[in-house]
Design brief:
Layout lengths: L1 H44 L19 E2 L2 E2 L2 E2 L4 H8 L13 E4 L8 E6 L2 E7 L16 H7 L4 E5 L7 E5 L9 E7 L5 E8 L11
Antiparallel strand pairs: 1-2, 2-3, 4-5, 5-6, 6-10, 7-8, 8-9, 9-10
Length: about 210
């Protein structure tokens, strides 16, 4: 009789234990799921911390060189116009009045020379690495960089006196004056040794005013 009473009691206790175990398992699953739900956004959806690629920019300095000039120097301007812009006296009565001459202009950077033909600015010669174009091209750059900065606008020609050098001629973009050019000179290592900007035909003169 006693054994018959113990069977239902033991069965009830066993059921209770299994229920408690199931409850603990369900609670653990809920905690794990909750943890995964909160962790997923930070590991999967978190934005990249890498900086975005920088857009192409131009060099913005007072004397950045373009196919139209540099700073106050504008291809085709007269000496009187430049004197007004620079508020400085400009040499007069030289060979530049009717022929060709390089004039020393006060106030312009060292390494920049101005060629004047028939009293107008025909060309600017650049001989210093610290004087870049508005695209960032400068003395010391490789030919590949010039072609990349002026993609689709560069024509390469053999240099007159250096069998391993080249002239890299950059054409302007309309509506700029189509007679203007930038000419980069390279050596045997394909690096720019000097460059000039001006109008045709003066910008193509290899010997300058000679």
């Amino acid at each position: 009789m006693m054994r018959a009473r113990l069977v239902p009691i033991l069965a009830f206790i066993a059921l209770g234990c299994r229920g408690a175990a199931r409850s603990r398992a369900d609670s653990a699953s809920s905690v794990t799921a909750a943890h995964l739900d909160t962790a997923a956004p930070s590991s999967v959806l978190a934005p990249s911390t890498a900086p975005p690629p920088s857009p192409a920019t131009t060099v913005k300095t007072q004397w950045a060189v373009t196919d139209s000039g540099a700073g106050a120097l504008r291809i085709g301007m007269t000496r009187d116009q430049l004197a007004l812009d620079l508020h400085a006296p400009i040499p007069k009565h030289t060979r530049a009045d009717s022929g060709c001459a390089y004039l020393a202009i006060p106030g312009i950077p060292a390494g920049m020379r101005t060629m004047w033909v028939a009293a107008t600015l025909a060309r600017i010669d650049i001989g210093a690495p610290k004087l870049p174009t508005d695209r960032g091209a400068k003395i010391g750059d490789k030919q590949a960089k010039i072609e990349s900065l002026y993609r689709g606008r560069v024509s390469a020609m053999p240099a007159k006196y250096d069998p391993h050098g080249k002239y890299l001629v950059v054409r302007p973009v309309p509506p700029a004056d189509s007679s203007h050019r930038i000419v980069f000179e390279t050596d045997s290592s394909t690096r720019v040794t000097r460059y000039r900007v001006g109008r045709e035909p003066e910008v193509e003169w290899v010997e300058g005013c000679s």
